[in-house]
């Protein structure tokens, strides 16, 4: 089936449809990962976006049972150069086409993804649509330009009720703005007793769970679309050790009085170099973000910049000088991607230990 990808600037790519070609709209973004398309497809942070992969052959190792980052994919469309429908891998249980069909997600293959990526880098990310309609371009563009911009992605992907991953270690409350399973895996691997709570949880509800620490998860959309979460984090700051990842990092910054802004085309891929200020070390990181913390908004908030992106100098990590709280813009759970940064989960565990020791000393006094 012929499918069309149309961008708001009038660019049209004609290709072969796969998955379920229904008419969808979304922000068109690109990811430079060489592998990891299953994790990209199932990362809730892509909710509302049409993702184009710059690597030219996608689908060749199929889809397996283990690598999902959430129970169902939320992306609005998938764009590839060449779609492989005959996967070869011992773990593969279905094809990429079958997965997209299961969840009514459109795919389009045969697209000049290099041209598309250059365009997105030059103009910045754009609204786009995938459709099988043969209507004139002008008609489709009018529909695309009047399509509403999504602002409720977090509510769509967050859990509706509390669930647990029991463990014998520190009790961690994960505020689920669209949490990736990789984050839960990293916590349970370290024996944490995990409570995953909905995005609109209140500080009082969290106090009742008596956590040792709180993890602010990744998630889709603009951090300013969830003002209630910013207020809750403000109320929690200083009471418990906080660790923020991606959207959670941006929300920690906003709750501390710093500001965020949209980037031109964001960072998405598995090889983004990030420099840690304290050691001068460079880590290769997995990233997926459109927004960033504004460096010039940090002064006077009690925060410091701990990590910086080497490609463009943007903020990739912050830490609070007086309160137990730190966060990173990238993905230390490395799904997909390099595992260099998993030490940050150990840092969070140490912070929870220190907080416990601190409160024991305070009680003894
Ligand atoms: N992966 C994430 O948590 C992304 C955070 C935010 N939605 C952004 O695009 O910047």
Protein architecture, described:
With 365 residues, the chain is of the alpha/beta class. It has two domains: 2-149, Glucose Oxidase, domain 1; 154-364, Class I glutamine amidotransferase (GATase) domain (Rossmann fold, 3-Layer(aba) Sandwich), CATH 3.40.50.880. Helices cover 26% and strands 32% of the residues. It is built from ten helices and 21 strands. It has helices at 37-42, 96-102, 113-123, 137-146, 153-157, 181-189, 203-208, 227-236, 247-255, 343-364; strands at residues 2-7, 12-19, 24-31, 49-53, 57-58, 63-64, 77-79, 82-83, 92-94, 106-109, 126-131, 163-165, 171-176, 193-198, 213-216, 242-245, 260-276, 282-293, 303-309, 315-320, 325-328. The strands form four sheets. A ten-stranded mixed beta sheet has the order 12-14-13-15-16-21-20-19-17-18, sandwiched between helices. A seven-stranded mixed beta barrel has the order 1-2-10-7-4-3-11. Strands 5-8 form a two-stranded parallel ribbon. The longest helix has 22 residues, at 343-364. It starts with a strand and ends with a helix. The mean pLDDT is 97. The protein binds glutamine. Glutamine (GLN) is lined by residues 45, 218-221, 246-247, 288-291. GO terms for molecular function: ATP binding; carbamoyl-phosphate synthase (glutamine-hydrolyzing) activity. Pfam families: CPSase_sm_chain, GATase. Composed of two chains; the small (or glutamine) chain promotes the hydrolysis of glutamine to ammonia, which is used by the large (or ammonia) chain to synthesize carbamoyl phosphate. Tetramer of heterodimers (alpha,beta)4.
């Amino acid at each position: 089936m012929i499918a069309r990808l149309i961008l708001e600037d009038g660019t049209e790519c004609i290709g072969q449809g796969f998955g379920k070609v229904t008419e969808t709209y979304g922000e068109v973004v690109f990811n430079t990962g060489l592998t990891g398309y299953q994790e990209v497809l199932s990362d809730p942070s892509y909710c509302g976006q049409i993702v184009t992969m710059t690597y030219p052959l996608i689908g060749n190792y199929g889809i397996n049972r283990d690598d999902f980052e959430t129970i169902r994919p939320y992306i609005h469309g998938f764009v590839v150069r060449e779609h492989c429908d005959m996967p070869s891998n011992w773990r593969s249980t279905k094809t990429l086409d079958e997965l997209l069909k299961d969840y009514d997600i459109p795919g389009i293959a045969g697209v000049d993804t290099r041209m598309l990526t250059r365009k997105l880098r030059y103009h910045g990310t754009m609204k786009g649509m995938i459709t099988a309609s043969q209507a004139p371009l002008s008609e489709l563009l009018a529909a695309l330009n009047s399509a509403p911009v999504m602002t409720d992605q977090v509510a769509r992907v967050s859990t509706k009720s509390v669930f647990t991953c029991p463990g014998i270690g520190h009790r961690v409350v994960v505020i689920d703005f669209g949490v990736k399973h990789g984050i839960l895996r990293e916590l349970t691997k370290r024996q944490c007793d995990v409570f995953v709570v909905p995005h609109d949880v209140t500080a009082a509800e969290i106090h009742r769970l008596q956590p040792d620490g709180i993890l602010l998860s990744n998630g889709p959309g603009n951090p300013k679309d969830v003002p209630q979460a910013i207020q809750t984090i403000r109320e929690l700051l200083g009471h418990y050790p906080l660790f923020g990842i991606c959207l959670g990092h941006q929300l920690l910054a906003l709750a501390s009085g710093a500001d965020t802004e949209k980037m031109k085309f964001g960072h998405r891929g598995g090889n983004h170099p990030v420099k840690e200020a304290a050691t001068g070390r460079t880590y290769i990181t997995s990233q997926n973000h459109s927004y960033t913390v504004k460096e010039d908004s940090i002064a006077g908030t009690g925060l410091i910049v701990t990590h910086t992106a080497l490609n463009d100098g943007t903020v990739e990590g912050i830490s609070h000088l007086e309160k137990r709280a730190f966060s990173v813009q990238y993905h230390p759970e490395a799904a997909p991607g390099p595992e260099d940064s998993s030490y940050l989960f150990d840092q969070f565990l140490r912070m929870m230990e220190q907080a416990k020791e601190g409160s024991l000393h305070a009680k003894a006094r």
